Amino acid sequence: MAIFLNENSKVIVQGMTGSEGTKHTKRMLKSGTNIVGGVNPRKAGTEADIDGTLVPVFGSVAEAMEKTGADTSVIFVPPKFAKDAVIEAIDAEIGLAVVITEGIPVHDSAYFWAHAVAKGNKTRIIGPNCPGVISPGKSNAGIIPADITGPGKIGLVSKSGTLTYQLMYELRDIGFSSAVGIGGDPVIGTTHIDALAAFQEDPETELIVMIGEIGGDAEERAAAYIKENVTKPVVGYVAGFTAPEGKTMGHAGAIVSGSAGTAQAKKEALEAAGVKVGKTPSETAALARAIVEG
């Protein structure tokens, strides 16, 4: 099993013909993702040659869905055009929109998130500013390297792309059902809680690894959710233990004020919910390994 994405997912790429879109479409195809089309209104009706694979280019998400049965879109559209691209995906009622783009203004993200809600939440948004989602051996929608791990029994949800890769690599011998990079912006579509709920329901996920970071209260809310709803073991890591108070660190969402949002406060909330929390990514991987190997 997997969450959000599986071997039957039909993927289109908005912005496929741009440099980033082309580069990562090559990588997704190489990893076995079923990419059925790209979207670029100016190149509609043509085919893009992606390393010898001819991929049709459509004028809109709706047309791509109609012609191919696509259910997932990966969005590599530059920040100033990203809002319109996401809204187009939502209006077409595609099931999953993975927004890779970094630097989207927060009010744009808030706008398209609200638009998705107003449309009845028919489109799950992952991101923005995220590495995407991978179900190893099945499908890969985004920029997560497909060769650093294999299929297995761990579910991973993370705010940080780099830490997603590190944990996947350190636990590669155990493998992953799915890994979801939710992004570190203040407004994101899919939250820790959404992924935790999906992993709890997935019969092949035996252990959940959750990576958070300083700023906001998402991890505290996730801890409360875990305490009430998650019966599977959860291992956590919170990035930013050494961050100075009041500074924005890295991701737009990572700003700390007072004790709210600190790594220590998040660690304590998670531990109170029964989550084992590592002080480093490698210690977190060791905690996960110890649980799996029993």
UniProtKB/TrEMBL annotation:
<dbReference type="InterPro" id="IPR033847">
    <property type="entry name" value="Citrt_syn/SCS-alpha_CS"/>
</dbReference>
<comment type="similarity">
    <text>Belongs to the succinate/malate CoA ligase alpha subunit family.</text>
</comment>
<dbReference type="Pfam" id="PF00549">
    <property type="entry name" value="Ligase_CoA"/>
</dbReference>
<comment type="pathway">
    <text>Carbohydrate metabolism; tricarboxylic acid cycle; succinate from succinyl-CoA (ligase route): step 1/1.</text>
</comment>
<dbReference type="InterPro" id="IPR036291">
    <property type="entry name" value="NAD(P)-bd_dom_sf"/>
</dbReference>
<feature type="binding site">
    <location>
        <position position="165"/>
    </location>
    <ligand>
        <name>substrate</name>
    </ligand>
</feature>
<feature type="binding site">
    <location>
        <position position="43"/>
    </location>
    <ligand>
        <name>CoA</name>
    </ligand>
</feature>
<feature type="binding site">
    <location>
        <begin position="100"/>
        <end position="102"/>
    </location>
    <ligand>
        <name>CoA</name>
    </ligand>
</feature>
<feature type="binding site">
    <location>
        <begin position="17"/>
        <end position="20"/>
    </location>
    <ligand>
        <name>CoA</name>
    </ligand>
</feature>
<dbReference type="InterPro" id="IPR003781">
    <property type="entry name" value="CoA-bd"/>
</dbReference>
<protein>
    <recommendedName>
        <fullName>Succinate--CoA ligase [ADP-forming] subunit alpha</fullName>
        <ecNumber>6.2.1.5</ecNumber>
    </recommendedName>
</protein>
<feature type="domain" description="CoA-binding">
    <location>
        <begin position="4"/>
        <end position="104"/>
    </location>
</feature>
<comment type="subunit">
    <text>Heterotetramer of two alpha and two beta subunits.</text>
</comment>
<dbReference type="InterPro" id="IPR017440">
    <property type="entry name" value="Cit_synth/succinyl-CoA_lig_AS"/>
</dbReference>
<keyword id="KW-0547">Nucleotide-binding</keyword>
<dbReference type="InterPro" id="IPR005811">
    <property type="entry name" value="SUCC_ACL_C"/>
</dbReference>
<dbReference type="InterPro" id="IPR016102">
    <property type="entry name" value="Succinyl-CoA_synth-like"/>
</dbReference>
<dbReference type="Pfam" id="PF02629">
    <property type="entry name" value="CoA_binding"/>
</dbReference>
<keyword id="KW-0816">Tricarboxylic acid cycle</keyword>
<comment type="function">
    <text>Succinyl-CoA synthetase functions in the citric acid cycle (TCA), coupling the hydrolysis of succinyl-CoA to the synthesis of either ATP or GTP and thus represents the only step of substrate-level phosphorylation in the TCA. The alpha subunit of the enzyme binds the substrates coenzyme A and phosphate, while succinate binding and nucleotide specificity is provided by the beta subunit.</text>
</comment>
<feature type="active site" description="Tele-phosphohistidine intermediate">
    <location>
        <position position="251"/>
    </location>
</feature>
<keyword id="KW-0436">Ligase</keyword>
<dbReference type="GO" id="GO:0004775">
    <property type="term" value="F:succinate-CoA ligase (ADP-forming) activity"/>
</dbReference>
<dbReference type="InterPro" id="IPR005810">
    <property type="entry name" value="CoA_lig_alpha"/>
</dbReference>
